[in-house]
Write a structure and sequence with these properties.
The protein is built from eleven helices and no strands. About 30% of the residues are buried. The longest helix is centred in the first third of the chain and has 20 residues. By secondary structure, the chain is mainly α. The model has no long low-confidence stretch (mean pLDDT about 90). Helix content is about 65%, strand content about 0%.
Length: about 210
């Protein structure tokens, strides 16, 4: 039995009356699933990723009650316990990876696994669209492409020139007219979508 649809129903019921929160989860799930399919993520990891994307912010209600805050690190702390109850109610097995992703979706260092990377990307993209995130948060196009995967030189410093060069070559190869050095905030909606598709194809080829 496909548990994704019942999980979405559980998430909607849990967030009853909060359309913004429900829509956010659905959009992150949609982006995460699309990117994962383009990356040819295997079925097992895709299932875990979709499940984590649906429940990634499930700890917010508890955080609001306990801390009067929705801060990301608090969500990471409280989310897994809420998610565990929902997942076990749906007879999920082997939920450790899902809980790990939920408990780290606001942690942008030491990103381990493509599923983790994709969840971060999907959540950031939706947050950007919904909240008009500042350029300091999403930064430039080339930085978005290499988020959590930055190249470094022999001195351990970020190799900006290489990232810009490879970003430009990627767009030229795909026929995408995007300047890798502009702010993501300056892109149109269609360009943002092309950016995500280009990024997925780039790392799939690596």
């Amino acid at each position: 039995m496909n548990k994704i649809a019942p999980l979405i129903q559980k998430m909607i019921k849990y967030n009853h009356g909060n359309a913004k929160r429900i829509n956010h989860a659905l959009k992150v799930h949609n982006y995460a699933k699309t990117i994962a399919i383009l990356e040819k993520v295997n079925e097992y990891d895709l299932f875990n990723l979709e499940s984590a994307a649906i429940l990634h912010d499930i700890g917010i209600k508890v955080c609001e009650k306990k801390y009067n805050s929705t801060e990301g690190k608090l969500q990471e702390k409280e989310g897994p316990a809420v998610a565990r109850e929902i997942l076990e109610n749906l007879d999920y097995k082997n939920i450790n990876r899902i809980l790990f992703l939920i408990g780290h979706h606001h942690t942008y260092i030491n990103v381990s696994g493509l599923d983790y990377q994709i969840l971060i990307e999907a959540d950031l993209l939706v947050n950007f669209e919904e909240e008009n995130t500042s350029k300091e948060d999403i930064k430039k196009v080339y930085e978005n492409i290499f988020l959590c995967r930055e190249y470094t030189n022999k001195f351990g410093k970020v190799d900006t020139k290489r990232m810009i060069k490879e970003s430009r070559e990627l767009f030229e190869e795909l026929g995408v007219e995007i300047d890798p050095e502009i702010e993501v905030s300056g892109l149109t909606t269609s360009q943002k979508q092309l950016l995500e598709i280009s990024k997925a194809l780039f790392f799939k080829a690596k």
